[in-house]
Design a protein that fits this description.
2 domains; about 70% helix; membrane; transport; protein-N(PI)-phosphohistidine-lactose phosphotransferase system transporter activity; LacE
Length: about 325
Amino acid sequence: PFFEKISRNIYLRAIRDGFIAGMPVILFSSIFILIAYVPNAWGFHWSKDIETFLMTPYSYSMGILAFFVGGTTAKALTDSKNRDLPATNQINFLSTMLASMVGFLLMAAEPAKEGGFLTAFMGTKGLLTAFIAAFVTVNVYKVCVKNNVTIRMPEDVPPNISQVFKDLIPFTVSVVILYGLELLVKGTLGVTVAESIGTLIAPLFSAADGYLGITLIFGAYAFFWFVGIHGPSIVEPAIAAITYANIDVNLHLIQAGQHADKVITSGTQMFIATMGGTGATLIVPFLFMWICKSDRNRAIGRASVVPTFFGVNEPILFGAPIVLNPIFYTFLVT
């Protein structure tokens, strides 16, 4: 029951759903990384002009990922909060998205000398700050909307105009709170909220980025699945920031001609640790089909072989079953 409550936590779900909504940005930017740097493995290097040309779309997508995720996470959390509110008095998710993104910019982007602002912490380095912005914003909106701390317009005013005034107070309060947090941290530590969070958790990221960290993280995936709980829904929100931050670090290492040595990335998860689903079960359906003598297990293997190619291994987890099966526990964890 305890872990089920964790898996159903609306904040963890918001982080997960916010990332899922931002996946097109990640996948789109990955195309240009592949084109720009995969040929290096065969000794071919693009000219600097072409490399810059290829990496520009990356910089304007993955380079400001946290900015987007701040909005999508706020939207996901707003949807969860709205389930507890009357249908006639809902939070406007578009407004929470905008407020969260504005608040994130205030906490992560410093003004540039030549105008505009710096984007160093608007990418993967600013993800935790984006979550803070989203959580604060949506909770402020809920308090204001639930207690009618809004500007009400006459009924003959068009709904879209009325909604603007209804959102004005919660928008202002949430942004002011986030800006106040930024001023407090800046005045105390001399750096932005995003930079201070990055400095604070850097030792944790370094400690987790190794074989022991991988063992604990993906072992936790398997353990939760073993007891019948969706492991990624609990573990992924906790490691999302480090996995995508490490992608950015590895990219800069490659650009500098060095070895990409950050291990905990989404690539490690998808193509090694969880290939075919939690427990790396890609080969298991074939073992069931070709080696098992039981007709039942052969049928399960045939039914689950296609889903596991797409990382969906619930048919094998619950059909074998691997869940709550001590015989398969060691296999699932290792």
